Amino acid sequence: MTKIVSLAKRRGFIYPGSEIYGGLKGTWDYGPLGSELKFNIKQEWWKTMVKNRDDVVGMSTSILMNPRVWEASGHMTGFNDPLIECKTCHQRFKADQEDVIAEHENWHKEKKEKVDWTKVKKFNLLVETKIGVVEGEKNTVYLRGEITQGVHVNFKNVLSSSRLKIPFGIAQIGKAFRNEITPGNFTYRSIEFEQMELQYYVKPDKKESMKQYEFWKNLRMDWYKSLGINSDNLRFREHEKSELAHYAKEAWDIEYKAPFGWKECEGIHHRGDWDLARHQEFSGQDMSYFDEETGKKYIPWVIETSGGVDRAALFFLIDAYSEEDDRIILKLNPKLAPYKVAVFPLLANKPQLVKKAREIYEMLKSPIPQFPNYPITVAWDDRGNIGKRYYSQDEIGTPFCITVDFESLEKDDVTVRDRDTMKQVRIRVEKLINYIKEKIC
Ligand code: GAP
Fold first, then answer.
1. CA neighbor of 252 nearest in space, from 234, 260, 261, 264
2. Residues within a 6 A CB radius of ligand 1
3. What is the DSSP string of 271-311?
4. CA–CA separation, 345 vs 298, rounded Å?
5. Its pTM surpasses 0.85
6. Could you give the residue range(s) of every CATH 3.30.930.10 domain in the chain?
7. Which tens digits make up the pLDDT trace of 195-251?
8. Class of CATH domain 2-64+141-319
9. 339-440 has CATH 3.40.50.800 classification
């Protein structure tokens, strides 16, 4: 983890939030490469979950909502973590993190101090803020604790403004906030983070809902594998009844084998009719669906897939990190790599080489109508020796490096070096776009 954290900072993936002021625990800023990585993750998710499907539409809802939403959703009362406080130093911990608590006890024992704990209390995770312009009359509102509720409160809006029929889904990507008792393990547990979620509405039927549940569970697992995560590092884990969230009838996590243990990456939840029924009760609005075929009204059940963008980014980085001899390589799937290619003139002090390399750089960056992944991000580097430039690109996961040398001027070709195998091939410039396209598609 130390190596990943250091690489992330050094190369511009992730920095501690507001670092020049000493930081703010549990917040992180994504640098030039980190923001590309996150963008690519979200793009791949959106393609799989929305664009490639006829039964799913997207939404982008407000972070701030009427506080009644959180009463209805059960978050005011049920969105709690168990908290205990050390009576000696007043540090607070999540009561279910046994390893962290044991470590804290040992720390006191080593200093020959006694350790005593308060009783376990419920601690609500919603982050409060105030809105309004008149001091003393400001209203308390909450930064959304999950992006989910924005979708459910709009269920009828989406129904009436589209031609969707059950089963169908509404997808969303956006920020959520939680007053975590112990943020930590780098970005793994943050106070502010991004979620990517699907709320899939199905008939209130056990068999049908479980069929959909299995489908989405497997699709989500396959998504991580298809983007390069080693399948040995992924597993499903079913939630015990005692750990189910207040809204869930059934829940399975997709877990990743991180250096700090098997950890939740995404949750697949059977939410039953919890959300729509509660919003119907609290808002007094009809949240039911009218089935034209049977002429019956019902409150649909919901199958949810809920993943974290930041956790996915962290786990993709960890899984891609490798060291070979004296090289550090991020073996990121090309679809996720911040830069798809880097272009180098062999020598920076030879204007003919720089001119030709620059032309190739511009050509690769230009949009190609028939290829939706274009324009691609292309890096330019003309500093230092070529070996160092290759290594520098390996470390940030650039799948291909293109070098323009003297032969290129005569033959109108370039060398293309593969990040993982280090093999180099000569490709004619006219064939270059197709060559790259095939590799990164
Ligand atoms: N709508 C359901 C829901 O929010 P969750 O299991 O509480 O379910 C879903 O969260 C995902 O959001 C998690 O699997 C994780 O990827 C991400 N997530 C949750 N809390 C997080 C935190 N404090 N920091 C970073 N990511 C978090």
1. 264
2. 146, 148, 178, 180, 189-190, 193, 195, 197, 264-267, 304, 306-308, 310-311
3. EETHHHHHHHHHH-----EEETTTTEEEPPEEEEEEEEHHH
4. 65
5. yes
6. 2-64+141-319
7. 999 999 999 999 999 999 999 999 999 999 999 999 999 999 999 998 898 999 999
8. alpha beta
9. yes
